[in-house]
Amino acid sequence: MDSIELQPSYSLDNNNHHAENTSKQQMTSGNRPRLTTNDTAEEGNPLLSPEQVPVDNGGQHRVDGEEVNQESISLNVQNSIANKEMTCMVHRRRWMILICLIFLILLVIGVSFAVCLGIHDDVDEKYDPALFVLPRCFNGSFRLSNQILIPELLSPASDQSKALSSQLQEKLSDLYSSSPALGRYFSSVEISDFRNGSVVADYRLRFLMPLNNAELERVTLSREMVYNVFRQSLYDQDPELNHPLYIHPASLDMQVGSVTSESGSGALYW
After folding, report:
1. Which of 205, 241, 198, 240 is closest to 223 using CA atoms?
2. pTM over 0.70, yes/no
């Protein structure tokens, strides 16, 4: 009777022992029982409900349903400010370089202009007219194509002769006085006579030289130089052929005159 009642108890112990062994094997093999969301939340922080658990999204926060990266926005603003500052610095440097270049160009122009105005003195422009005492003369003639010989021009004392002589003397005086090569040596011009052939005028040119004149007589005050200056001016004169003082270039004649042959037969222009 006693043996029959003990058998169920032995069977129950075996079942409990088998359940414990099965549970240990599951734990050993890593097959732990799955936990639900509620279980996980209760194990991690049993004081917070699932709705109160903070969510970490790498520094991102949800605002009105959109994720905004505050750190990225801050970096973008800083980069924008830095780019603007760099652009302003580049523009300022460019303007400074441009202003320096303009100033340098103006400085060079000013210095060049000052040099041209006379920083260096032309030694050849400095001379003493009192040293020019030795005369050198040239005689010749030319034809006034637009003049008609009238009896009054044959008399040096007539008003017509004096007026025409004065005009021609002024013309020749301006010609040689403005010559860069001969201007300093020019002294006077004289219109001595008028002759027939339309109107042919005889002239006399007078130049003054210093005592040491060998070079001047051979080059500067040579017949070729004085003649070519006169002839070139005739080719450069007003092309209006009906001008009363027009001198025909082909009619020009010139010879070297002697100093002792100077005469006062005509008006003298100093």
Report:
1. 205
2. no
